[in-house]
């Protein structure tokens, strides 16, 4: 038998392999190699886009979270980071221990009077642009402890917040969904809101007194240059 | 390393084995003003200036070596501090010391020189209720900020009055005293409250001499979310039960709920059906496994900075336990599963499938534990970090009211599941785990061996539940819709939490809400002993010690 004749014994044994592959792929072209991205590229390897748009896409696709455990929700947050849920699959996986290296702060727990100023400090230490995800009812509104004498009624009293995730605590799936929503918003060009709280007036000391700073300074009542520990009148 | 010598002082007992109240009254002499009956023990009202004398006598001559809890409360006409004393050898021997003081001048003598654990407990009493203690080493606020005005659990506290503090008060604490002074060798270092190694929002003020810890002072209160106030605002029957889940969110939910249930059932005289007791026992052992797995996983994370192997393994196994608990209770962490007089619902249908899942988990567990031992305990690097670091002497531990795996790691054979038995524990076969090392390694070993024991208990519970006759599956006793225990009834009951003795003191005031609800948190007392373990050691060992203490800040601060 010459070698240009296929041998039955070999072609016969290779069949099951292709069977499996074909069963996985289904009919037609393998869609795994035909992603949306590739469709967008068409036949050319070049893309044209605005730099800002590209940067937003990059920013949303590579987020560094702050390793920030406060209360019960942080246990679920740990589960979200680790096996099974694995937030890393959604480009947001590796928690950074230092706020200087983090983009996103997940606030997982009840904020109380003693901790609120410390959380503000940690937030201030994060580089711009920075985003905040409120995890659970406590950091949204005080949650089950809202009536407590010592509880700050939501992290938003202290720092600006982008996404609220309800739950007590939210399941890891909910946190993944919240983070994905945040990424969507970032990719659509949303940047972090800049708010100036009355007690930040001191920080103007470093700034040039331009129109904006002057206006903010004028808005501030000197007597409110304090931190309030309980918000009796807040909603 | 000193050996653990048992003091051979036993409390005077009657023939039936109970504490002999008259003998104790005779022992205390004229210091006793009055006697009260608490549901858990006899209480002696003593003069405010004789606290140290009374406690010293009880400690030395009657063997009450465990100051379990200090409760302060305000009445219409007086302040009261209650010292709940127990014995490490037999915690059913209890006695309470009630110290009344006038409303005008709420000053009583401090117990801190006798029992070191009273230090933090009295600071908390001062902080929240406003009782002052003479001769206390450091009577300042512990849970609330220093700038707080008023004592929030007092009767005339106005919660609507804003607490306003100038911005200056919140300035960087490091600016002034980063060093101990011009010519000092020491350096002041803040660890926390946001720090990866503190397991939450603990703030540890350390003074370093080179790399050695010269002084360490845990500063707590960053998660003080008014659990006691919340419980005092809720009705016994339903409104309190969700809160215990949030004390030890390890998740020790069912164990915590049981602590409340045990105290309230004692107060309202409710008998729990046996079938419900078995389910409770099984549920709380699952919680214990989850807690100990978390402790092991984060301990390895602290020591190695290892986010990839052991931490992930721990989380992987916790997912399974959490799934089992979710099937049982309906929630992953905040179970709200126990009710006074039973549990809320039966084992999920189909029962066979559930039992099979539990058995699968138990069957896989030994191989997984071997894996942990391979990775952690047999690892040379790990051993060099843990062996002989963070040593806690058993006598010191008793003085600080240390309980749970931390105490058992120092060779103190104290486990409320056996010694003050509740639920179904005394019907089952299991062992109390102790290690004599007293160091970080011993505490880790205790936890890992306790996981095995918990698995044994669960296995027996599953066997029992499976064979339980269908018409005797009573999960709930008859409990009145509104519970109003008589005014003046008081009780202190504890269960063995994942971190140690979790006690609840309740005073009924005749309404459907507790007059005073006090939580004795095990992690609070365990953490107060940190100074003893870490002073003189290296700073990395301090981190290891913190990890081996396994504090959950929700439980420390409440």
TrEMBL record, chain A:
GO terms for biological process: aerobic respiration; electron transport coupled proton transport. The keyword Transport applies. GO terms for cellular component: respiratory chain complex I. Signal peptide: none annotated. One of its GO terms (molecular function) is metal ion binding. The keyword Oxidoreductase applies. Residues 72-182 form the NADH:ubiquinone oxidoreductase-like 20kDa subunit domain. Keywords: 4Fe-4S, Electron transport, Iron, Iron-sulfur, Metal-binding, NAD, Oxidoreductase, Transport. Its cofactor is [4Fe-4S] cluster. SUPFAM superfamilies: HydA/Nqo6-like (SSF56770). Residues 1-17 have a biased composition (Polar residues). It comes from the Archaea. Residues 1-26 are annotated as: Disordered. InterPro entries: NADH_UbQ_OxRdtase-like_20kDa, NADH_UQ_OxRdtase_20Kd_su. NCBIfam families: nuoB_fam, PRK06411.1. Belongs to the complex I 20 kDa subunit family. PANTHER family: NADH DEHYDROGENASE (PTHR11995), NADH DEHYDROGENASE [UBIQUINONE] IRON-SULFUR PROTEIN 7, MITOCHONDRIAL (PTHR11995:SF14). This is NADH-quinone oxidoreductase subunit B.
């Amino acid at each position: 038998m010459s070698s240009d004749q296929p041998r039955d014994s070999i072609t016969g044994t290779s069949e099951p392999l292709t069977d499996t592959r074909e069963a996985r792929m289904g009919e037609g072209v393998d869609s795994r190699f035909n992603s949306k991205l590739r469709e967008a590229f068409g036949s050319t390897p070049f893309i044209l886009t605005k730099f800002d748009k590209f940067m937003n896409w990059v920013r949303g696709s590579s987020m560094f979270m702050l390793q920030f455990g406060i209360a019960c929700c942080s246990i679920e947050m740990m589960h979200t980071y680790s096996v099974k849920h694995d937030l890393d699959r959604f480009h947001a996986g590796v928690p950074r221990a230092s706020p200087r290296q983090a983009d996103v702060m997940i606030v997982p727990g009840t904020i109380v009077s003693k901790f609120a100023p410390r959380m503000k400090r940690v937030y201030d230490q994060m580089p711009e642009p920075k985003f905040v995800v409120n995890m659970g009812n406590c950091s949204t509104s005080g949650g089950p402890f809202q009536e407590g004498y010592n509880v700050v009624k939501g992290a938003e009293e202290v720092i600006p917040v982008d996404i609220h995730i309800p739950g007590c605590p939210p399941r890891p799936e909910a946190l993944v969904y919240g983070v994905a929503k945040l990424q969507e918003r970032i990719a659509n060009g949303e940047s972090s809101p800049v708010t100036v709280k009355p007690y930040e007036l001191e920080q103007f000391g470093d700034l040039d007194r331009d129109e904006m700073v002057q206006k903010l300074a004028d808005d501030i009542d000197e007597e409110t240059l304090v931190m309030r520990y309980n918000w009796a009148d807040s909603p | 390393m000193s050996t653990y010598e048992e003091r051979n002082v036993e409390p005077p007992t009657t023939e039936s084995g109970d504490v002999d109240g008259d003998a104790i009254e005779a022992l205390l002499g004229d210091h006793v003003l009055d006697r009260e009956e608490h549901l858990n023990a006899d209480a002696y009202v003593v003069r405010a200036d004789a606290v140290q004398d009374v406690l010293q006598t009880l400690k030395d001559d009657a063997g009450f070596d465990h100051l379990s809890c200090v409760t302060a409360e305000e009445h219409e006409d007086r302040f009261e501090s209650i010292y709940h004393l127990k014995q490490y050898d037999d915690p059913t021997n209890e006695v309470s010391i009630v110290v009344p003081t006038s409303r005008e001048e709420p000053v009583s003598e401090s117990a801190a020189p006798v029992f070191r654990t009273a230090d933090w407990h009295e600071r908390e009493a001062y902080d929240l209720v406003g009782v002052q203690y003479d001769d206390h080493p450091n009577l300042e606020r512990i849970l609330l900020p220093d700038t707080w005005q008023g004592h929030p659990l007092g009767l005339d506290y106005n919660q609507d009055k804003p607490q306003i503090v100038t911005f200056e008060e919140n300035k960087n604490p490091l600016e002034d005293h980063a060093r101990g002074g011009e010519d000092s060798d020491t350096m002041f270092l803040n660890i926390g409250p946001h720090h990866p190694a503190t397991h939450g929002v603990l703030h540890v003020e350390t003074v370093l001499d080179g790399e050695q810890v010269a002084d360490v002072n845990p500063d707590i209160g960053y998660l003080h979310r008014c659990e006691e106030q919340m419980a005092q605002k809720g009705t016994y029957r339903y409104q309190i039960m969700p809160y215990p889940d949030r004390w030890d969110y390890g998740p020790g939910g069912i164990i915590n709920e049981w602590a409340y249930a045990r105290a309230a059932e004692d107060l309202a005289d409710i008998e729990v059906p046996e079938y419900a007791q078995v389910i409770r026992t099984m549920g709380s052992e699952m919680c214990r496994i989850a807690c100990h797995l978390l402790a092991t996983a984060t301990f390895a994370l602290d020591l190695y900075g290892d986010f990839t192997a052991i931490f992930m393994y721990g989380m992987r196994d916790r997912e399974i336990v959490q799934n089992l608990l979710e099937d049982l209770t309906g929630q992953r962490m905040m179970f709200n599963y126990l009710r006074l007089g039973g549990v809320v619902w039966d084992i999920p249908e189909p029962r066979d499938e559930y039992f099979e899942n539990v058995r699968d988990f138990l069957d896989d567990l030994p191989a997984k534990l071997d894996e942990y031992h391979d990775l952690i305990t047999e690892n040379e690097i790990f051993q060099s970090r843990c062996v002989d670091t963070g040593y806690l002497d058993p006598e010191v531990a008793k003085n600080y009211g240390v309980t749970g795996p931390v105490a058992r790691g120092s060779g103190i054979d104290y486990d409320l599941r056996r010694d003050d038995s509740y639920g179904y524990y005394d019907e089952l076969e299991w062992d109390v785990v102790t290690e004599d090392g007293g160091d970080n390694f011993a505490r880790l070993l205790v936890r890992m061996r306790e996981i095995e024991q918990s698995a044994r208990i669960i296995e027996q519970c599953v066997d029992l539940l499976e064979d339980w006759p269908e018409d005797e599956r009573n999960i709930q006793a008859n409990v009145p819709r509104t519970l109003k225990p008589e005014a003046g009834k008081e009780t202190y009951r504890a269960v063995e939490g994942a971190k140690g003795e979790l006690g609840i003191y309740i005073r009924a005031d005749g309404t459907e809400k507790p007059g005073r609800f006090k939580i004795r948190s095990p992690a609070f007392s365990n953490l107060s002993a940190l100074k003893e373990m870490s002073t003189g050691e290296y700073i990395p060992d301090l981190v290891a010690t913190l990890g081996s203490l396994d504090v959950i800040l929700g439980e420390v601060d409440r």
